[in-house]
Amino acid sequence: xxDNMPKVKIGIVAVSRDxxxxxxxxxxxxxLVEAYKAKYDASEIYECPICIVESEIHMVQALEDIKKxxxxxxxxxxxxxxxxISETLLAKHFEGPKMFIAxxxxxxxxxxxxxxxxxxxxxxxxxxxxxxxxxxYIPEYPVGNAEECADMIHEFVPIAKAIEGLNNLKIISFGPxxxxxxxxxxxxxxxxxxxxxxxxxxxxxLFEAFNKHAGDERIPALVExxxxxxGAGNKKPNVLPKLAQYELTLKDWVEEHxxxxxxxxxxxxxxxxxxxxxxxxxxxxxxRLAAQGIPVSCEVDIYGALSEFIGTVVSGDTVTLLDIxxxxxxxxxxxxxxxxxxxxxxxxxxxxxCGNTAAGKLSSCSMKYQLIMARNLxxxxxxxxxxxxIVPGDITFFRLQSTADxxxxxxxxQGEVLPVATRSFGSIGIFAIPEMGRFYxxxxxxxxxxHHGAVAFGHFGKALFEVFKYIGVPVDEIGYNQPAGVRYxxxxxxx
Length: 495
Fold this sequence. Notes:
Blueprint: E1 10-15, H1 22-39, E2 45-47, H2 56-68, E3 73-78, H3 84-93, E4 98-103, H4 118-132, E5 143-144, H5 146-167, E6 169-174, H6 189-194, E7 197-201, H7 203-212, H8 219-230, H9 240-257, E8 263-267, H10 274-278, H11 283-291, E9 296-297, H12 302-315, E10 319-326, H13 330-336, E11 348-353, E12 366-369, H14 371-374, E13 383-389, E14 393-402, E15 408-417, E16 427-432, H15 436-445, E17 452-456, H16 461-470, E18 478-480
Parallel strand pairs: 1-2, 1-3, 3-4, 4-5, 6-7, 6-8, 8-9, 13-16, 15-18
Antiparallel strand pairs: 10-11, 10-17, 11-16, 12-13, 14-15, 14-17, 15-16
């Protein structure tokens, strides 16, 4: 198994203004750490004991200590007002994701020697971070008691993992986008701006590597593993050896090409020449790798792969990449949805891809051939899709994208997959997102997003929003489904 998911160890450094009692920060830091360990995974945090940061010298000592402890994320904890220069220099010189929070006052009976004024200090901290051009995560309400601050740090964990992942990510792509798929072709400059590496290869390179894996001694065992996963859905057993050969090819490529990067995601080619040359379609393998923590996008969708990786890290679970594909027919909506679920027809749509969703995210699955491709090609070279309805439950549909003019944009929409049979083919589900019709028109269409969207299984909009903000997506370029009565800027007020 390839270890491809970021982990974080968060150094908690308390700071103090030298005209305040240092004991305020010491005791509040201890209480914060105890509260976190009582409720969450203690291995996620490290309490910096070496000093309370009151000066630049203390800042250097604390920085060296948390680095030595192996911390790759930082929480600057204002136990009192805090030294605005030293605390922001600490954030500046720490290379990983960072967060600022502040201590609330404990008691109305101790507001003389025991008053810390961190509520005030947070304002100066934020001002100084801006002056120095330092990015930091600040929660919606960043002031709290020990238990509340522990909860804030816990919410920071998936955000920090995503930033850590992006700082150490390589995207491996194979081939140019297929013809008539300009929507998946976006400028890669923003990848470098984000600190992401990209390795672009020809599909001919991939084909050569695949052929070199012919007869690989690991293939039979992997075929058995695939057959066990598919169970009764193993309708095309003859294609499994080729799929196993392909999976091994990709995994070996990842290990041989990751270079100095810790994490990898793949933007893969899947048509039009893939089927005729390889003799199958890669959909099932794409889903299997996604379930193993190596997301693979279809149709060389580089920003789709990037989005999938972020979603995997934030959710800690398998994601998928789907077309925002087709409307739900009138008769189907009336018979299966209307009156049973609190959605209008325009709130619903079908999310679909040929067969790339992992088996664990399908209600049931069958290995099939790719129906669309088989309309023009022999059926036997289009085998390899995993068909089935996507499991019902909460989802987050989202995407990070570079526009044609090289600007970062994103969208996030929370909803659900309905427990309604799709009566269709591929990996597919009936999705319901409140006010989807307006979101579709005034975010997806208006902002020129492509048809691919990443799907995380659960509601993760809050964390994704903070990740996108942290990496530099302008807040007004993060679209979401506005509730009824809140007008989009491009929405006709007399509609």
